[in-house]
Amino acid sequence: MRVVIAEDAVLLREGLAGLLERFGHTVAAAVGDAPALVEAVTEHRPHAVVTDVRMPPGYSDEGLRAALELRARHPELAVLVLSQYVEQTYAAELLESGGGAGVGYLLKDRIGDVREFVDALGRVAAGGTVVDPEVVRQLLSRRRDPLARLTPRELEVLGLIAEGRANASIARHLHVTEAAVAKHIANIFAKLDLPPASDGHRRVLAVLAYLRS
Amino acid sequence: MIDRTALEALTRRPLPFLGSSWPWRGAAYLAAGAVPGVAAGLVVAAAASGALLGPALAVVAGLAALALSIVVIAPFERLRLRLVDPVPVPGAPHRRGREAGLVIMTLLALWWIDLVMLAFTIGGPVVLALSPVLQEELTPLAGALAVVAGLLLLPVAAYTITAWAGARGAMVRAILAPAGSELEEVLRSRARLVDAFELERRRIERDLHDGAQQRLVSLSMALGMAGLDLPAGSEPARLVALAHDEAKRALAELRELIRGVHSQVLTDRGLAAAVHDVAGRSPVPVDVRVDLPGRLPAPVEVTAYYVVTEALTNLAKHGGATRATVTGLVERGTLVVEVCDDGTGGADPARGTGLTGLADRLAVVEGRLSLSSPPGGPTRLRAEIPC
Fold this sequence. Notes:
The complex is a heterodimer of chains A (about 210) and B (about 375).
Chain A: E1 2-6, H1 10-22, E2 26-31, H2 34-44, E3 48-52, H3 62-73, E4 78-83, H4 88-96, E5 103-107, H5 114-125, E6 129-131, H6 133-142, H7 144-147, H8 152-162, H9 167-174, H10 178-191, H11 200-212
Parallel strand pairs in A: 1-2, 1-3, 3-4, 4-5, 5-6
Helix pairs in contact in A: 2-3, 6-8, 8-10, 9-10
Chain B: H1 6-9, H2 14-19, H3 22-31, H4 34-53, H5 55-81, H6 96-129, H7 131-134, H8 140-176, H9 179-229, H10 235-261, H11 264-269, H12 271-281, E1 286-291, H13 298-317, E2 324-331, E3 334-341, H14 354-364, E4 368-372, E5 379-386
Parallel strand pairs in B: 1-2
Antiparallel strand pairs in B: 2-3, 3-5, 4-5
Helix pairs in contact in B: 3-8, 4-5, 4-6, 5-6, 6-8, 9-10, 12-13, 13-14
C-alpha cells in the first residue's frame, strides 16, 4: 500500500515512515505541513494518508482540515488522522466526510502499539472506520440510561464495535469464540433497536450514530 | 504592616505612630499650605494693582493671575499630596476642570485653614510649654503645670495634624481621581493580567505539545518496535513491555495535564465545541444545548469555558448528581451560560475557592455569577457575560 505521511515533528515523522515500511508499506512522501500534504497527495495519489491534526503554519487543526478537503476531492482516499488529544468534534467531522467509510481517528499514543496501529491503518484503507477507544469511552459514558439494559460483556463488545473492529478481532480481544461475539452483537442490536447490519463498516456507523445521537 | 496613607497610619498603636514619620509629614503637608497662600496673595495683589488703573483692568489682571496660579498650583498640589498619600494619582488630561476647582478651593479657603490648624495645634502646646520663659510673673507651680500640660498636648497635636492632613489628602484624591476612574484602571489592569496568564498557559501547552509529548510518542513507538524483535515471553520482552506501558501511562497523564492548562478545541472551534467535548469527558451524563451566533470574543469564550469546566468538575466530585445540563445562548448582547444538575444541592460559595475564583474571573469581563443550590437540590449555576 502507498501511504503519504504528514507530521511536523521530524522524529515522529521518520519513526512513522520506518514503522510503515517495516510492515511492507511504501511511504510515497513524508511531509511536515498541510499544504505540502495536499500537494503530495495530488502528486503521488496514495491509497492512504496518515496525518497529524496540528501542523504548521497555524498550529491549530490544519491537518484535519486538509484531510477533509482531500476526502472531498478524492472520496476513495483513506485517511487516518492522528491527534494528541481526542476531541469528539474532530471525530464527528471526520465521520461525516464521505459517510465515514475509509476514515480513522486515533490518539497518537496508539502508534506505540505498532501491530494494532498498522492493523487499524489497513482497516481504514480497506474502507473501514476506526475510532479511538477514548472517543468511544466518552460516548459510552454519555448514554448511560438506555445502555443500562446491556450486560457488562455486551457493553464491552459495543465499545469494540464502535472502535471499528471486526468479529474476529473482537473475539481475539475478549478471548472468546467468534460465534459468542456474534450472539452478543445480535443481543446488543436487539436491545438498542438498531437495524441489523452485516456489513462491518455499516455496523460501526450505526453504533456510532446511536452513541452520538 | 506598611501604611499607605496618613489616615491608615492613625490606626497604628500610639508609640509606633508617634515614632513614625507620619506626624512630620502631616505637619510638612499643612505648612506647604503657605505656597498657595502666597499665590492667593499674588492674585489679590494683581487685582489691586490693576484696580489702580481702572476696574476693568482689575478683573483682567486678577483673572490672569488666577489662571497662572491654576497652572502652577495644580501640579504643586499633586506633589504635596505625596507627603500624606504616596499612592500615585492616575494622570488625567481630561480632568482640567477638576484641577481648576481644586486650585480655586485651595486659594480661597484651604490654604489658610491648613495654616491655622498647624498654628493652633502646634502653637498652643509650644506656647504653654514655654510659658515660664514668656511670662515671668507666673508662680513656679503654675509654670511647671503649664510646661507639663504643653508637653502632654504635643502628642495630641501629632494626632490632630496627621488626621487633618490625611483628610485633606483624601479630599484632594477624591477631587483629582473620582472613585470610578481608579476602579476602571484596576479592572483594566486585572483584565491585562488575565490575558497575560492566558497567553502564558497557551505557551506552556504549546511547549509541552511540541516537546515532551512528541518525544514520549516517539519513545513509545521505539519501544513498540523493539518489542517486535524480541522473542515473546523472554525477560527482555517483558522489560520492554513494562517500559512501554510506563511510557503510555506518562503520555496519558501528560495529556490530562495539558488539557487542564489550555483547551485547543476552544481556540480552534469555539465555545460550543469545547463545551461538548468537556461534557463528553464528564463521568456524569451531560446534556448540552449551546446555541451561539458564531465565535465570541476570546476572553468571553475562555471565561465561559472555565465556568462550565469548574461546574462540571464540582458536580462530579460532590453533589450526587446523576444528570446535568449545560445551556448557552446570547440574549440581548449577553452570553448566558447555565449549568444545572439534579444532585443534593447545598453548594456553598463560602467553602472552597472554586466558586470564588469563578466569580473573580467573571468580574474581569464584567460578568455576573449567580448560584442557587438549596439543600436537597437542584443546583443551578448561572453566568452572564456581556459580549
